[in-house]
Amino acid sequence: MANITISEIAREAGVSKSTVSRVLNSKPDVLPETKQRVMEIVEKYGFQPSVYAISMSQKRCNCIGVVIPHDIDYIFKNQYYSEIQRTMLKAAQKRGYYVLLLCCKDMKEAINAVKQRRVDGLIMVSPLPEHKSAMTTFLESNIPFVTVGKCQFLSNAYQVCTDNYKGAMLAMEHLLGLGHRRIAYINGPHFLPSSGERCRAYLDAMRAENLPVTEGMIREGGNSIESGYAATKEILSDHPDITALFVASDYMAIGVESAVRDSGMRVPDDISIVSFDNIPIAAQISPALTTVDQHIEEKGQLCVDLLLDLLEEPNTQRAHSIDIAPTLCVRESTSKVRS
């Protein structure tokens, strides 16, 4: 029999359809001998239950949405987003869920996915204040909703955050501890809350040491290799006496290293570089980057586990914010300042 149905399995096993359903859904209230008889028939005919039918009966689709509300080019040119997606896919798969990736700046696709119940829950990566209205819609829909990144503009959302200020302070303390005093900074895009926190830490660290931050020592990049290269060229043109650069992302720091070399200098002999993220390529380039590890894999795992726990155990009390403490990975791109 090619396409056996639950009714036919029930008839051959001499049980009701509901008993077959309980066996297929691993319910405990079935006699062992009955379960064995049903499973022998299932295996005999190679029966595969309909995922659609199961999701309808359970009022779930076993799919979670991951929303990244930024330009597709920006997302896929930055390995941070690739890594966070990879870890979320692994974590969801481990718990039997699929992932629907939604790259949509205007949020319409994500809102439709929620309203049409195409997802059981939603994770939003790098939310911005301009997304508050859409995020309020998600919360009001009563599906589990978690953000990757702090959103102070919507305090009742569950969120998993990196302490960006602390991480940037670790980077600056490392450079200052190596004797660097002329330190420039390449920030990430101004619209990201993380950029504001990292820049604030840079300024606070410089002020604490009474070090001047003159015009042109801070440049904004786009978290791309190209923007890191361009910003470094501009800084070196205006401030050829700098001995160190703090860079807001590893991906930009790749361009920074290239720009330093093209300017006839060496890393770290002439200029030390500390970056942020600890994506895999940070350890693979030469010289390997000293970088702030924001523990991307842990972050992705925590987000998925939190979302699915909210889905499967909705009445359990949980903290609304989980903070991940960054650490510093010291590699080859930093050294003591040379006189």
Instruction: Tell how many strands the DSSP assignment holds.
Output: 12
* Tally of separate helices: 13
**Intertermini distance:** 83 Å
User: What percent of the residues sit in helical stretches (DSSP H or I)?
Assistant: 40-55%
CATH C-level label of the largest domain? Alpha Beta
- Average pLDDT taken over every residue: 90
Label this structure with key terms.
339 residues, Rossmann fold, 434 Repressor (Amino-terminal Domain), 6-stranded mixed beta sheet, alpha/beta, elongated, 6-stranded parallel beta sheet
Plain-language structure description:
The chain is an alpha/beta fold and 339 residues long. It has three domains: 6-49, 434 Repressor (Amino-terminal Domain); 63-163 and 296-324, Response regulator (Rossmann fold, 3-Layer(aba) Sandwich); 164-294, Response regulator (Rossmann fold, 3-Layer(aba) Sandwich), CATH 3.40.50.2300. 44% of the residues lie in helices and 16% in strands. The chain is built from 13 helices and twelve strands. The protein has helices at 6-13, 17-24, 32-45, 51-58, 72-76, 79-94, 108-115, 132-140, 164-177, 193-208, 225-238, 250-262, 296-312, and strands spanning 63-67, 98-102, 121-125, 145-148, 158-162, 183-187, 218-220, 244-247, 272-277, 290-293, 321-324, 327-329. The chain has a six-stranded parallel beta sheet with strand order 2-1-3-4-5-11, sandwiched between helices. Strands 7-6-8-9-10-12 form a six-stranded mixed beta sheet, with helices on both faces. Helix 10 links the parallel strand 6 and strand 7 (218-220). Helix 1 crosses helix 3 (32-45), helix 6 (79-94) packs across helix 13 and helix 11 (225-238) crosses helix 12 (250-262). The longest helix has 17 residues, at 296-312. The model has no long low-confidence stretch (mean pLDDT 90).
